[in-house]
Specification:
- The termini are far apart.
- This protein folds into six domains: 3-131, Four Helix Bundle (Hemerythrin (Met), subunit A) (Up-down Bundle); 142-269, Up-down Bundle (Four Helix Bundle (Hemerythrin (Met), subunit A)), CATH 1.20.120.160; 280-339; 347-402; 406-584, Histidine kinase-like ATPase, C-terminal domain (Heat Shock Protein 90, 2-Layer Sandwich), CATH 3.30.565; 589-730, OB fold (Dihydrolipoamide Acetyltransferase, E2P).
- Strands 10-14-15-13-12-11 form a six-stranded mixed sheet. It has a five-stranded mixed sheet with strand order 2-4-5-7-6. Strands 16-8-9-18-17 form a five-stranded mixed sheet.
- Strand 6 (566-572) and strand 7 form a beta hairpin.
- It is of the alpha+beta class.
């Protein structure tokens, strides 16, 4: 650290001091200040800045007195402020080679002593601690330890979340800093409280992250694993401390700190980093098939006969069997596969996928070119067909590159369940299936929030209290099951609980009482279950910190719809409830139905289209001279005239002369009238400009095969828009 860096550290400490509240014991902030002063003292010693070193020692003692006195008074804070100002003055003097280094040491300490009273040592902070028995060793106030435990566990939770972000974005220095800060804070406070094991471990992990910040170490699987292991060890140490304060006799954690320190050291040195492929002979030696001496002899033989490979030489010399060599070769191939993995910046990957999308669009445009359709050149047609196959395979491959396992999301939910079970006084276990199922990286964060809401409701509303479960003949602990799997072109996520299930009658009564539906609506049980997605509907008798305010499940529905997904509910009273959410595998491409209305072309997601028909004239009717209905297999469905809704000139005006699509959205189905169905194809989704983001009935756009832009319709928004237009007609 040079002088400029030292001054920067002093300024950072001065900024943190502003966060220290007067009259209270803010352990995390105080810990950071102590930690910073320790660093400043050490660097001052290296720079031979004796006034700075002694001043930092004095400020450490003053800050410890403030903490010991329960936050200190106005005079204490004035003294701290004055001391920090003096430190900044000394730092400024260090940059002026021909200027005095500030006031004399005696004058510094005398001035500070007058401000804060006796007790300012002239030793370094570390020496002061040694003389005083470790600084905080004399603390008898358990409240400081309890504050540290609460803050420490919060820091660990923060680390657990941020480490997942770092694994996904290994080049993002903000992710590294977000991990560095909680470790740094834990180290500082633990040092003050004389918690040596915690301080030392946090310090080792802090050093590891510092090397990453300085680009001295790359983020890999080993780094992520050892940080997670270190965080778990810190958590175990803090929990053990908590149990000791609560009077538990055997609360020592089962943590091998020496072994963990060795693993951290190995990772720092790169000993566990990704290695190259080992030679066949080395693998056989490691497996104990041959000795090192035997390998050397066979290598000498192989040099004399270059045509003979080492494996053949070993078999010929009777040193190894063909089976042993074959097994070693398979192991070598496996290592080669692992070594072939490289990290690619996510922005580059997104650019690649965008370019492949453009390639798909261009290929579609070529295929639909009128000149090509009229050509008689069979070779050209075969080549274009082959090109289409290659592009399709390239599209599938590039899309798969953006897929990541859903395991990380499930792990975060597991930790959430633990917290919720404590908050609700319930015992809840988590079972995971299919956590290796892959999902689009861009969808991970979008999916997490609706899953959280469903899990919250499962824990709060679904799983019963332990006593209630035992009375019902169930295990004391409930189970939340997380399951993920692929089905066709979608990923399905199931969240199930073995709780009390949904009460259909209670939901119905609540919906009627809130004016959300009319009494006697004649809904099926499945339709009643879907009512929980309506805004403002909650069957909770009391409002808790977890749920019960009537918000959440409607947010779930909107979030899933935004991702072009669907959600279904299965429930058996007394047995449990299962939420089944399905999403497209990727957000970039959809399977769409291309339709024409007048001169305009639109895209309807194929997943939303249930049926295509041309109704008979007798199947079309008008209700109250306003609402048009179509009889679809015995069920009357409202008709949406797309040309009227969008204000365009449609070619066909009568439903029985047009094509009618039966479109489903949520628990609603309506008929949409169009002039023509042009076909079905995969389209690359393009975002709309700011001016069209709020356009109802439209979700996004796509470039069609003829080069024109087609708007992708949003069925739910289309239904809402039609109902609004119908209401205006009735008025």
């Amino acid at each position: 650290m040079d002088v400029d860096s030292l001054i920067h550290a002093i300024d950072a400490m001065a900024s943190d001091f502003l966060l220290l509240e007067r009259g209270t014991v803010d352990v995390p902030t105080a810990g950071r200040l102590l930690n910073q002063l320790e660093i400043i003292s050490g660097e001052a010693l290296k720079l031979d800045a004796e006034p700075m070193r002694r001043l930092s020692g004095g400020l450490v003692a003053l800050l410890e007195n403030v903490i010991m006195n329960g936050g200190g008074g106005e005079a204490d804070f004035t003294a701290l402020q004055k001391g920090i100002t003096l430190m900044q003055e000394v730092g400024s003097g260090l940059t002026k080679t021909d200027a005095p280094r500030g006031k004399d040491v005696g004058e510094f300490m005398s001035e500070i002593t007058q401000l804060a009273g006796d007790g300012f040592p002239e030793e370094t902070p570390s020496a002061a601690k040694e003389q005083e028995g470790g600084g905080a060793s004399g603390l008898q106030d358990e409240s400081l330890l309890r504050d540290f435990i609460v803050e420490g566990l919060e820091y660990i939770n923060e680390i657990e979340v941020n480490i997942l972000n770092l694994e996904q974005n290994p080049e993002d220095k903000d992710c590294v800093n977000s991990l560095f800060r909680p470790f740094h804070s834990i180290k500082g406070v633990a040092g003050f409280l004389n918690l040596d094991d915690i301080r030392e471990l946090a310090h080792r992990l802090e050093d590891l992250l510092d090397k990453i910040r300085k680009d001295e170490l790359s983020v890999n699987t080993d780094v992520i694993d050892v940080i997670l292991e270190g965080a778990d060890a810190l958590k175990a140490l803090i929990v053990s401390l908590q149990k000791k304060l609560e009077g538990h006799p055997s609360a020592d954690p089962e943590v091998d700190l020496e072994a963990l320190a060795a693993r951290i050291g190995d990772v720092e040195e790169g000993n566990h980093a990704e290695k190259g492929v080992k030679r066949l002979g080395e693998i056989l030696v490691e497996d104990g098939v041959i000795t090192r001496e035997t390998l050397t002899e066979c290598l000498d033989v192989a040099k004399e006969t270059p045509a003979k490979k080492i494996g053949e030489a070993l078999i010929a010399g009777g040193k190894a069997t063909p089976k042993q060599v074959s097994q070693a070769l398979r192991k070598q191939i496996s290592q080669a596969s692992e070594a072939a993995s490289i990290r690619v910046d996510t922005s580059k990957l997104d650019d690649l996928i965008d370019m492949v999308g453009e390639l798909v669009i261009t290929q579609t445009m070529i295929r639909q070119n009128p000149v090509l359709r009229e050509t008689a050149d069979e070779k050209l047609l075969r080549d274009i067909s082959q090109l289409g196959s290659i592009i399709s395979e390239l599209q599938r491959t590039s899309t798969s590159l953006r897929m990541i396992p859903i395991k990380q999301t499930f792990q975060k939910i597991t930790r959430l369940v633990r917290d919720l079970s404590k908050a609700t006084g319930k015992k809840v276990n988590v079972a995971m299936t299919g956590e290796e199922t892959e999902i689009d990286r861009n969808m991970v964060e979008e999916i997490y929030n609706p899953l959280v809401h469903m899990v919250r409701n499962a824990v709060d509303h679904g799983v019963e209290k332990p006593a209630e479960r035992m009375m019902a003949g169930k295990p004391e602990a409930g189970t939340i099951s997380l399951k993920a799997y692929h089905r066709g072109g979608t990923i399905v996520i199931e969240i199930a609980d073995d709780g009390k299930g949904l009460d259909a009658q209670k939901i119905l009564d609540k919906a009627v009482g809130n004016g959300l539906i009319e009494a006697g609506a004649g809904l099926t049980e499945q339709e009643i279950f879907r009512l929980i997605f309506l805004p403002g509907l909650s069957t909770a008798s009391t409002v808790s910190d977890v749920s019960g305010r009537g918000v959440g499940m409607d947010v779930v529905k909107k979030a899933i719809d935004k991702l072009r997904g669907k959600v279904d509910i299965q429930s058996v009273k007394g047995k449990g409830t299962t939420f089944i959410a399905s999403f497209p595998l990727t957000m970039a491409i959809i399977d769409g139905m291309i339709v024409r209305v007048g001169k305009e072309k639109y895209i309807v997601p194929t997943s939303a289209v249930r049926l295509l028909l041309r109704p008979d004239r007798s199947e079309c009717s008008t209700v109250a001279q306003k609402a048009e209905m179509v009889n679809v297999r015995g069920t009357l469905m409202p008709l949406i005239r797309l040309h009227e809704l969008f204000g365009i000139d449609g070619e066909r005006k009568k439903p029985w002369e047009s094509i009618v699509m039966v479109v489903d959205s949520d628990n609603r189905s309506k008929c949409v009238m169009v002039d023509e169905i042009l076909g079905k194809e995969e389209v690359v989704i393009k975002g709309l400009g700011d001016g069209m983001k709020k356009a109802k009935g439209v979700s996004s756009g796509a470039i069609l095969g003829d080069g024109n832009i087609g708007l992708i319709l949003d069925p739910e928004g289309l239904f809402d828009l039609s109902e609004t237009a119908m209401g205006a007609k009735r008025r």
